Every structure is written in C-alpha cells, then in structure tokens.
Amino acid sequence: DQQVKQNSPSLSVQEGRISILNCDYTNSMFDYFLWYKKYPAEGPTFLISISSIKDKNEDGRFTVFLNKSAKHLSLHIVPSQPGDSAVYFCAASGYGGSQGNLIFGKGTKLSVKP
Amino acid sequence: DAMVIQNPRYQVTQFGKPVTLSCSQTLNHNVMYWYQQKSSQAPKLLFHYYDKDFNNEADTPDNFQSRRPNTSFCFLDIRSPGLGDAAMYLCATSRGGSFGANVLTFGAGSRLTVL
C-alpha cells in the first residue's frame, strides 16, 4: 500500500507559467518531506525539503507547501523553465529525518514547453 | 567533485546467474542505501548500512544481499536473478545523525537486464 502518492504521472506547462506538483501521504508519523528531481540517465538530485513544523519553505523559484491536516504537500515552480523538465519525486521520512528511510512516490514527469 | 559512483551503469545477466553491483562514495557519509526502481514505480528501499550496521527492509527478498567492506564502498549482490529483478538499482548516501540530515545523494544508477 502506497504511503506516498503522486497521482499525476505527468504535467505539461508553458514556459514562464507556474508548475504545481502535488503529493499526498497517509502515514501521520512522517515529519520530514523532500522533493527530488531526476533527469534521464541520472540519479535523483535533492531539490527542496520541509519539516512538519513548517507549512512553507522557499528556495528561489521553488516553494514547497505542507498541509498537515490534509496530509498533502505541493511543489510550486515559478516561473517554469524548459530546464525544469524532469521527473519529480516526492519523498517522506519519519523520526525527524534522522534515520531511514525515505519513502518515495512514483514521480510526476514535468514537461515545460518553450 | 565529491560524489556517488555506481558500476556498471548497465548490466545484462542471464536468469539465475549471480550479479554484483558496486557503489563508491567520496562524501564520507555514514549511511549507504540501495534502492530498486522498476519502470514507472517509486524507488523502493532494499536495505541500508549505518556505518557497519546493516538494516534490511522486511520485504526485501533473501536473493538480495549487501556488503560494506569500508566507509567508501557498498555492494549489492543478487544471488539468483529472476526476470522480476530487472530494474534500475540506485545507490544513495546520507550523513545520518541529526534532524534534517536525511538528504540523500544518489548515484546515476545501474540498470539490470535479466535474459
């Protein structure tokens, strides 16, 4: 049973517009959440994270929002650029992120069209 | 650049023929992980080492073993690969320890094909 769900396998956005990638989780013990980005033929790379004590974290064009009551987080990319085209994985961890073991979603493939 | 290197990038084996995938890191991270990712699926943790302590996930088949002879290297051994073991195998590292230290650094992966 999936504990981290990314229900949209793909998303297409025009360059310059906002990309919103969504993620839902079921385990209330998760308290640290991360987004990874993966290009073809490369391993996933860390993008941004948020702990459960926050509801928003921002890093440049990337913002992650966490709604604990809804067990939902989202990644906003503004403005979207063609180089953002990649697969984005949502991941969650318990134990304050101090050990084990990230649980990943299946990923959302983002295509940003020029 | 400090990084995580996986070899080989592509491995083809025959049904039942043992395979070893390797991972090395120059980050001096305490924790090394092996994930299995099948097509269009989420990466799934097989096991991890925290220093020399081995932690196996409950649903990892016995067919999968791992060795970590030193801080820098970790190996994934598949004793008798089946067709269902064809996947991308991702090695990752993390510092471990304190809060927020669970950011993983991944290698580029080893894609296993079983004939």
Question: Can you give me a brief rundown of this structure?
Answer:
The complex is a heterodimer of chains A (114) and B (115). Chain A is mainly β and 114 residues long. Chain A has strands at residues 4-5, 10-14, 19-25, 32-38, 45-51, 56-59, 62-67, 72-77, 86-93, 103-104, 108-113.
Task: Give the uncertain stretches of chain B in residue-range form.
Answer: none
The outline of chain A comes out as: globular
Biggest interface and residues each: A-B, 28 and 30 residues
Spatial extent as radius of gyration of chain B:
13 Å
For the largest beta-sheet of chain B, the strand count, sense and barrel status come to: 7 strands, mixed
Oligomer: heterodimer
SS content category of chain A? mainly beta
Q: What's the count of strands of chain B?
A: 11
Between the first and last Cα atoms of chain A, what is the distance in angstroms? Answer: 38 Å
Number of helices of chain A: 0
Helical fraction of chain A? under 10%
- Given as residue ranges, the uncertain stretches of chain A (5+ residues, pLDDT < 50) are none
Give the integer mean of the pLDDT values of chain B: 92
SSE order of chain A, one letter for each helix or strand: EEEEEEEEEEE
Described by the principal axes of the CA atoms, the overall outline of chain B is globular
Count of DSSP strands of chain A: 11
